[in-house]
Amino acid sequence: MKQNLSKESQLLDKHKMSNCEDAYNIILHENGLPDAPFLHHHDYYEISFYLGKENGIYVIDQKECKVRQGDVILTGLFQSHMFKCARNEKHERFNIGLDPRILLSYSTQHANLLEIFDNINNQPIIRLDVWRFQKYMELIEKLLKLDMKYCRELGERSLIYQILAYLYEDSYKGRLSQPVNSKRIELLTMLVKYIETHLEEDISLDDLATMSNYSVTHISRIFKEETNSTLNHYILEKRLQKAKYLLSGTLPITEVAQQTGFNSYSHFYRVFKKSNGIGPEKWRQSNWQNRDV
Q1: Contact 272/279 with Cβ under 8 angstroms?
Q2: Is the pLDDT confidence value at 186 over 60?
Q3: Are residues 74 and 124 in contact, defined by beta-carbon separation less than 8 angstroms?
């Protein structure tokens, strides 16, 4: 499922994942400005339920798609996308971000949940009538109103499981499960998870090959085919992404550089400025000013 990333597409972080294992996130966009009014991509899958009273426009792989209330928009790993609107009012969306691990763990012998996203390059939108959409609305409402103090994650997971089951039924086209595709996604997930948890370290392709029990050539080819990005470029994106998250706080910039795997402040400064047009200190000041507005 190769994705054609635009050069302007930005990798967004996982720091909004709502549970401790970073397996999923849920977010309702109902008011204010859009969080990401620019082309971006994720290293996880995304399901977006369009709740808006007015029709909207989703841009997926630089193609504009008109959406209306009751549409379900499916976005794949590393797929460039954005929603076009000045404000979220009248364009409400309920999004679920899913790490591939949760799709793999929820799959059964006869239902490979990765198949939900099989045809997204040709048909990223599932269009539902009001009656078919109602069952999703009931589950979304339960998710938003879930009142569980000690076992909230289990409650959320059970409702997400039901949503995925409905989506599998509504998107089913008589396909057979594709174990080869699942193996590739498992490898991709393993690489992404390792990189994410070792960003403070010097990560080499040899390290990734050893960890995954595959050759450097094999993991590099699979990663490139699935994401249209090289492993080294992705590692750098993740370092810069984490740096921005840490710069949003008060951690000294030299420690930000250390915690994101840069061997010196000068190297960190040079790479950060090349990517963002300004150095990390000015970026931090600008971010703080924008939060105060």
Answers
A1: yes
A2: yes
A3: yes
Sign of the alpha-carbon torsion through 245, 246, 250, 256: negative
User: Is the confidence at residue 59, as pLDDT, over 60?
Assistant: yes
How far apart (Å, rounded) are the C-alpha atoms in residues 27 and 17?
A: 9
pLDDT at 255 over 90: yes
How buried is residue 199: exposed, middle or buried, by Cβ count under 10 Å (0-12/13-18/19+)? Answer: middle
CA nearest neighbour of 4 among 60, 83, 72: 60
284 CB-contact burial (10 Å; exposed 0-12 / middle 13-18 / buried 19+):
buried
The per-residue pLDDT for range 104-161, each reduced to its tens digit, is 888 887 888 888 988 787 889 999 999 999 999 999 999 999 998 888 899 999 999 9
* Confidence at 248, pLDDT banded by 50, 70, 90: confident
User: Exposure string (b/e) for 65-100, b if CB count within 10 Å is 16 or more?
Assistant: bebebbbbbbbbbbbbbbbebeebeebbbbbbbbbb
Separation CA 57–CA 67 (nearest Å):
6
What is the reported pTM?
0.76
Partnered with residue 83 across adjacent β-strands are 58
40-41 sheet: strands from edge to edge: 10-11, 40-41, 81-84, 56-60, 63-67
d(CA 273, CA 276): 5
Q: What integer pLDDT is reported at residue 173 of this predicted model?
A: 67
pLDDT over 80 (residue 176): no
Exposed e or buried b per residue across 215-231, where buried means at least 16 C-beta atoms within 10 angstroms of its C-beta: ebeebbebbeebbebeb
Indicate the angle between helix axes 205-212 and 231-247, nearest 10 degrees: 100
